[in-house]
Amino acid sequence: MTATQSRGVARIHAAFEAAQAQGRAAFIPFMTAGFPSAAAFPALADTLLERADILEVGLPYSDPLGDGPTIQRASEQALEGGTSTRRTLEAVRELRTRHDTPIVVMTYVNPIYAVGPREFMRLAQEAGVDGLILPDLPPDQDLEIADLAAEHGLAVTFLIAPTSTPARVKLVAEACTGFLYAVSVTGVTGAREATALNEVPAMLALAREHARVPVAVGFGVKDAGTAHQVAAVADGVVVGSAFINAINHGQDVAALVATIADGCQK
Organism's domain of life (predicted)? Predict the structure, then answer.
């Protein structure tokens, strides 16, 4: 792997290592680009980046099958406000002028194909993106995207769920170069009761038999308690719907960010 190819991978892994050295799981907040508006997104991202080890930026898409109603509505709102693939990457570029924290973009494959895989990767690299989370791309079905990502210095992350077979977990774990994203429950994104996270330890034990990268858990984390429950067994904690819900209800997002980040202690 060349220096260029390793850039995103190295930065993401360094973020996990720094968190581990401090006795905590990496805090990975998610926010849909262009939400609650294109004008308001940069300041909101700044708030998340005050405590984030890695920021996950969602690329708005009209058919986000893996997302629950909260993130679906945020994506619809962002699209209605004019946020596109190119504007999402421009937003990342703008964040790069103020922050050195790793940034990964969560995107379905259709927006990549709409731009063109090679052009998309070029734009992402130029914007300062470190990696891609690909929720609807089976790693054994389209190697072009993963190969192009590596060529442009971007790490790739795929997902597993409690329903994933051992063979599937092995395939996905070995394909990840950034981190492995373990979905805590079967279904779509969204905050859930803590009891919904009970399947996580067994799933992570299986994942770690094959993963050569850190393992982060998302779907269901909504407060310090659920963050701590996940942090006890995972390398990273992904939180998204809780922040979008807070914005929609006029709550103090900065306070919630601090509370959940503190909950990521081991």
Answer: Bacteria
- Phi then psi for residue 193, to 5 deg, are -70, 155
- Lowest-pLDDT range, 6-10, 61-65, 102-106, 123-127? 61-65
Judging by beta carbons within 10 Å of its beta carbon (0-12, 13-18, 19+), is residue 67 exposed, middle or buried?
Answer: buried
What is the reported pLDDT for 198?
72
Residue with tokens 């690329």: 59
Q: Are 47 and 101 in contact (CB under 8 A)?
A: no
Q: CA torsion angle for 203, 209, 211, 217 (degrees, to 10)?
A: 20
Residues annotated as part of the active site: 56, 67
What is the predicted pLDDT for the residue at 242? 95
Residue-by-residue DSSP string for 208-235: HTT-SS-EEEESS--SHHHHHHHHTT-S
Provide the whole-model pTM: 0.93
Residue closest to 30 by CA, chosen among 227, 183, 186, 257? 257
Burial degree of 51 (CB within 10 A; 0-12, 13-18, 19+): middle
Domain 3-262: which CATH number of 3.20.20.70, 3.30.420.40, 2.40.110.10, 1.10.540.10 = 3.20.20.70
